[in-house]
Design brief:
- The protein is about 15% helix and about 35% strand.
- The protein is built from 2 helices and 8 strands; from the N terminus they run E-E-E-E-E-H-E-H-E-E.
- The protein has a 4-stranded mixed beta sheet with strand order 5-8-6-7.
- The protein is globular, with a radius of gyration of 15 Å.
- It is an alpha+beta fold.
- Helix 1 (about 70-90) crosses helix 2.
- It has one domain: RutC-like (60s Ribosomal Protein L30, Chain: A), CATH 3.30.1330.40.
Length: about 150
């Protein structure tokens, strides 16, 4: 599947996302499990190299916190950082098969998904887990997101 007309913005300029859904990734919704809302229960990957991206936090390239006390701005920076990490590994958001979210306030997951939806195929979103935590590694950080991507061989 080729996704077109999907855009996301950096703090500098708009950049177009053209995502090709790799044929080595299959999204599965088992009928025995309640329907997923905003994620996929099972993602099957074959014939690929796996990319593990460490938890990304809302720090810019100079190490400055972006979006103090603003989860939407922090989530935007986190997904920009994920984009940079994926690009460095020769991947894009179409290759992401799993996200793990760590939030100080899990009730804000819908806001995070609104940001995420600018980057992923919402018809077949990656598998994901979300965990509420008491604190992240540095004061002021409200969100951290890990990703796993699979690039066809």
């Amino acid at each position: 599947m080729h996704i077109t007309d999907r855009f996301y913005s950096t703090y500098l300029k708009p950049v177009r996302i053209d995502t090709v859904m790799p044929s080595n990734i299959r999204f599965i919704a088992p009928p025995e499990i309640a329907p997923a809302n905003g994620y996929t229960h099972v993602v099957e990957v074959t014939n690929s190299k796996t990319i593990y991206i460490s938890g990304q936090v809302p720090l810019d390239s100079a190490g400055n916190l972006v979006g103090e006390n603003n989860l939407q701005e922090q989530a935007q920076q986190v997904f920009e950082n994920l984009h940079a990490a994926l690009t460095a590994a020769g991947a894009d958001f179409g290759h992401v098969v799993k996200f793990t979210y760590f939030l100080l306030d899990i009730s804000q997951i819908a806001l995070v998904r609104t940001v995420r939806d600018k980057y992923v195929n919402t018809a077949q979103p990656p598998a994901s887990s979300a965990v509420e935590v008491r604190k992240l590694f540095r004061d002021g950080i409200l969100i951290e997101v890990e990703a796993i991507a699979a690039v066809p061989l």
